[in-house]
Amino acid sequence: MMPGSERAETGHGRRERPAAAEPDPFPHRHLLGIAGLEPPEILHLLDEAERFVGTRRPPQDALRPGLTQINLFFEASTRTLMSFEIAGKRLGMDTVSFAVAASSIKKGETLLDTAQTLNAMRPDVLVVRHGSSGAAHLLAAKVNCAVINAGDGRHEHPTQALLDALTIRRRKGRIAGLVVAICGDVLHSRVARSNLLLLGRLGAEVRLVAPPTLLPPAAERLGATVYEDMEEGIRDADVVMMLRLQKERMAGAYLPSEKEFFRFYGLTAEKLARAKPDALVMHPGPMNRGVEIATAVADDLAHSAIEEQVAMGVAVRMACLSVLTRSRREAA
To answer: What is the mean pLDDT of residues 194-198?
Structure first.
């Protein structure tokens, strides 16, 4: 540790700063999850993201020319990968997307071997998506750069929760006091976990709505009210957040059929009528129309914020990249 400096001890890594400097509003080296973040730190990321909404030309102090961002995606992704790529390019960063399907991983190389190889190339940011919970934490302990978790197993997807919160705050003007119903495949959803943590910390009342087979054990201990009846679960809700049915993570029979799931847990106009008249409808995508949500509801611009979520994704990822590389720009 440098003389005259102090370390911020967090679950997201350590960042040294001069003892006499102004308090860092986000004193974390990595963004690995919402767990471990304090409400002011979450709000700082949301406020930063506001600066990037609707603009292709970021403020000068946010630009990061000459820094290198590597996107390391072990799972198929379209919108999240593109969103991070666009975000990095708009900040002037050199972005490289790692094609895992054609990589040495297929030849038997371990995740840690890959981490050491990438670390030797001295990137400034590593964006990681992996099918195993904890993969981002493992990499963060082995590399010298900032790590952003772009989704790990059933664990967390922090930038999705941040973009969802930004969308809600822009449409509703606040998060505290809102009733948010998260519906569908809660068991396999890292989106649900990150949203539950974030929205709860910012003062929302969170409900989980799902059949018993798609709820995690002891779901009621997660800080949400649990409903198995969807019409009751979304009654008077301000926000109805639908989840994708993650069939690729289902090793057994969790549902009688998709038709049966849609009948009881798919969002239709009739069910949505139970929520508040101005209820916001959200979905992290990609949507399975006619399984999780009816097309008429998904495309109803009076309620649906699904397209806006995609736009907020770029702004939030620009904010995360900018905040986590702030010290590297200052040191350059």
So the answer is: 97
